Amino acid sequence: QLQLQESGPGLVKTSETLSLTCTVSGGSISSSSYYWGWIRQPPGKGLEWIANTYYSGSTYYNPSLKSRVTISADTLKDHFSLNLSSVTAADTAVYYCANYDRQRLVFDSWGQGTLVTVSS
Amino acid sequence: QSVLTQPPSASGTPGQRVSISCSGSSSNIGTNTVNWYQQLPGTAPKLLIYSNNQRPSGVPDRFSGSKSGTSASLAISGLQSEDEADYYCAAWDDSLHGPVFGGGTKVTVL
Question: What are the DSSP E strand ranges found in A1-120?
Answer without folding.
Answer: 3-7, 11-13, 18-25, 34-41, 48-53, 59-61, 69-74, 79-84, 93-101, 106-110, 114-119
